Amino acid sequence: MNQNKKFLYDYSHIDFSNTTSKKDILVLLIQHDKDSFNYSFNTAAFNYAIAKELGVDDPTDLRLMFESGLFHDTGKLGMIPEFINFPGSYTLMMYNEMKKHAQGGSEILEKVNADIEIVEAAKYHHCNIDGSGYPGGLYGKEIPLSARITRISDSLDAYLSKRCYKEGGPAKEALDDLKQYTGTSYDEELIKCFEAIHNQIMKECHLIGEDRPSQKMYMHFLVRLYLYDFPVKNAKHILELF
Ligand SMILES: [Fe+2]
To answer: Are 106 and 119 in contact (CB under 8 A)?
Structure first.
């Protein structure tokens, strides 16, 4: 492939001909880049927990928040894995191309009639509460709830995960890391929800004598404390949800 073309946003490598449902999109996402898909599962699990802490208790609404996390990076289908996992800093041109995944994902999800919350999370999950971020144009609570929650969950997963260009951050410090950007990147009320989640997870870790949990242990307790009533508990069985 031409070197420059590799880093352009386009779908010519994806066969959408039989894509008519969210499940079909999920299959494409898993086939396209397994690692990215696993990150999306973590984002979905955080979304579910944050929504619960916010007081959402209707199973349908909770599931919508889960799916908003699961499908938030659907637009990355328009980026080949070498582009998604580029082991260095993006050039300005690459960054501008990458930003298209927000709008792109929302359009793919609209075509399969995904719920509005899921479409909006894909479109606005890089919008910051202070109006910065992309695609921009929304500020504060104008940003839909599913996107404001996903903004935090996506950052949490990015912080905790080891990527080709960085080590995972210490789970113990996840709250302090995100808190620095309360009111600029993140919604204050939702950071308070995450604070409750983080404190509960750290309490469970302390009880088993581990005050510096790995990402794996941290996610284990997240699932145990919050997804006990959800039918799917890991990325491996995700297709059973649909
Ligand atoms: Fe994204």
So the answer is: yes
Q: Look up residue 165 and give its DSSP letter.
A: T
- Tell me the pLDDT tens digit for each residue of 128-148: 999 999 999 999 999 999 999
Q: Read off the pTM.
A: 0.96
Range of the domain at 185: 20-241
The amino acid at 183: G
Domain count, the chain: 1
Cis peptide before 135 (omega within 30 of 0): yes
Nearest CA to 214 out of 179, 175, 178, 168 is that of: 168
Ligand 1 ion local residues (Cβ < 5 A) = 73
Residue 217 lies in a domain: yes
Give distance in angstroms: CA of 104 to centre of ligand 1.
11
The residues, any chain, with a CB within 8 Å of residue 43's CB and separated by 6 or more, are: 69, 70, 72, 150, 153, 154, 156, 157
Q: Compute the distance from residue 126 Cα to the ligand 1 centre, in Å.
A: 6
| Residue 4 belongs to a domain | no
